[in-house]
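Q: Give me the 3D complex with fe (iii) ion.
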Amino acid sequence: MTGTTSREPRPPSESALILPHYLREAEERRTPVGYPGYRSTALRAPLRTPVDLPQRLTEVTGPVLGQDRVTAADADLTLRRGGEAQGQRIFVFGRVLDSDGRPVPDALVEVWQANAAGRYRHVGDNWPAPLDPHFDGLGRVITDGLGRYEFTTIKPGAYPWGNHHNAWRPAHIHFSLFGSAFTQRLVTQMYFPGDPLFEQDPIYNSIPASARHRAISTFDLDRTQDNWALAFRWDIVLRGSGQTPFETDDDGDVA
Amino acid sequence: MDRHFSRQVLDADESNDRYEGMPRRGSGFLDEPLRRGTTPSATVGPYLAIGLTWADGPDVVPEGTEGAVWLRGRVLDGNGHLVPDAMIETWQADPDGGFDHPDAPQGARRFPGFRGFGRSHTVQPPGEYGIRTLKPGRVPDGKGGLQAPHVDVSLFARGLLDRVVTRIYFGDEAAANAEDDVLQRLPDDAARRTLIARPTADGYLLDFHLQGEDETVFFAL
Ligand SMILES: [Fe+3]
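A: Here is the predicted complex, encoded as structure tokens.
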């Protein structure tokens, strides 16, 4: 049997406590927990050096969150409360992979975003931009067998946030992903190509320069739909366990 | 084949060295293992409740489950103020030490009514979390011993650009805690104390201190 996905059961007897080990991205390509230009980190980001935790059973397993967490309507953010959201309609799609290049199937992807005017439907957001009665900004999907996901939504607006004088967040969509292991949990933000607000945004710039491009989607003309929507592709890569998709598995069968 | 296939190409061979001793150049794509760079993390920001609220988030087990306990506590910042916009997520073994997951050595094994996963915001009451669960069993440590019962925790909040990871241990498991290899590798009892929840009337209590004298031990995974 080939190790095509990380969800294939391992034979219980021989591989007892032979566990996958999830690789960690090099520090110079990981977002630090705290960043001086982002004011809220000052009193919140822990200051002591974290202690290395060995990856054992609790760390290499994780919740299996099924289709019962999502409905078909959750993938389309443009149709809520009986009407159509205002704004530039877009598809946001891509694959969830691990760093070995394997697709991550059955992964829960949760997204949230501001509306076209840059306003969140949240009690804490009261800057004077209009709320849209037909946009709540919440989407959920489960990746398919090839790790693919797709949302239909509207392009979020930029918004001011008071971190420094005249601070504006570049347009972004918040993403939350479960892989198949606790080690793979990821919360992040997707940006749009060529945003003129990148330069002044400490949250974008907290990502090391060599990895920033991984947070930016690409415009995909081939996936736009005539008379309907623009399209942006964003592949998301979770930590892998160092096995390539074509490697033989523990049971000795040849790929 | 050492020589080039065509005789018209002078002195060509299989190597494409520019000159002797100068290695072939490339991005490494052909020589290194197939590897893709991981997507960088970002903060959940202040509006995480829009996307990450589940009605049954705190219910690792449903209401009325026999033996259920509440894991409760507060999240505090460097000034000792409550953090009312954080979210904690928990992942743990079932009471028999099993996981409903294909990589578990016994194979995926479902403990009835048990999800293993919990999610609690710290919105109401402000700064406090609560997870209803069953106490986990002991899990092998991979070195022939057993780990003390523990719950893995991810903590997310505005102001944290990545999740921070910690563990909850149980104050009434002194013997198991004393032989737990993760606890033992911590520098001192003060560090260990930041991870050990105190028994209460309806379960266990543990505060998470993001900074300060009592800063919680956070782990690098
Ligand atoms: Fe945002």
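A quick observation: Chain A touches chain B through 92 residues (CB under 8 Å).
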